[in-house]
Amino acid sequence: MADAGPQALCAREPRVPAERLVAEMVPPPRFDSVRFDTYNPDPTQPSQSEAVTVLSGFAAGLGGSHASGAGKKRWFSKKPAAPAGPRGVYLDGGYGVGKTHLLASLWHATPAEPALKAFGTFVELTNLVGALGFQQTVQTLGGHRLLCIDEFELDDPGDTVLVSSLLSRLVEQGVALAATSNTLPGKLGEGRFAAADFLREIQGLSAHFRPLRIDGQDYRHRGLPEAPAPFSDEQVTKAAYAAEGASLDDFPGLLEHLARVHPSRYGALTDGITAVCLTDVGPVPDQSTALRLVVLADRLYDREIPVLASGVPFDRLFSEEMLNGGYRKKYFRAISRLTALARDAKPLVSQ
Predict the structure, then answer these.
(1) Angle subtended at Cα 118 by Cα 115 and Cα 123, rounded to the nearest 5 degrees
(2) 173 alpha-carbon distance from chain centroid
(3) b/e per residue, 110-126, with b = 16+ CB within 10 A?
(4) CA-to-CA distance for 265 and 14, rounded, in angstroms?
(5) Is the pLDDT reported for residue 285 higher than 60?
(6) Mean pLDDT over residues 150-174, rounded?
(7) Does residue 97 carry a pLDDT above 90?
(8) Averaged pLDDT for residues 241-249
(9) Residue with more model confidence, 78 or 274
(10) Residues near 299 by Cβ (< 8 Å), separated by ≥ 6?
(11) Is 74 exposed, middle or buried (0-12, 13-18, 19+ CB in 10 A)?
């Protein structure tokens, strides 16, 4: 048995300074060691191999000095001419085809020191703007060689205008862009909002990117056994007490707690946690709660934290209405990632 009882995520109220938000704009632990040569393209999907080739060339083309002088004034440096065509690549494909792996590989392959490259989710980027302010964010990222944005999802017209303006300013300063999403740039608002209200912003944003389609099935479940069925409350509780650094929470209570913690802090919420144990998992009651759970699932997956649960299986978390609505791709991604983490957690029960 562990020396101390399990922690509770519900008891944590992390505070994340702006400096940490900037410092953490690097590929998460799960993708820290990935490279193009560790990506395993599906032989039946030629678009996956093509993506590796295109992105490798894109990374190689980002060599040389940046117009900003890499953060240092060079009195005789000359600002390079604006590149012709799109200044970014946009990886479009379903969940589980390896988009984040490829995006992180691009970050690693780009010939620039880490301080001149930024990697974060769309939510983390908007959180950075909220913490620093728009102008300071432009100044902070404007000297970068590359900005990678994972899971580019526009949740409201305000975010559309904000991010479109930010990326336009960064492109003007010579920053290259790369992004992943489950929809093409010109269709980001489809099935979610009245796209006509902000179609101009979306079209202007899509002009910055060359869409790169990646087809395939979810690699997280390719050739793997089905996820384990949920365990009993007793099994989950016993495992939580036995595993050093595990957390133990009642699922309905955790959902309520997430409403009191800003999503930008969900990563910090899991600091030092080796496994998340949840009892009484059940269907998520509403869409706002569901979207918060999606963010938590992403942070747990990024940090490779296994999830042991009792209650209903993860593929029953979201209602049919949710799975058929505008956020369906987010929910399917969460199910996919939580299922993978549940598979990782199975050995905890036998400890």
Answers:
(1) 145
(2) 25
(3) bebeeebbbbbbbbbbb
(4) 6
(5) yes
(6) 82
(7) no
(8) 96
(9) 274
(10) 266, 267, 269, 270
(11) exposed
Whole-number Cα distances in Å, 208 to 15, 44, 177, 287, 329 = 35, 30, 8, 31, 23
**What average pLDDT score do residues 161-174 get?**
89
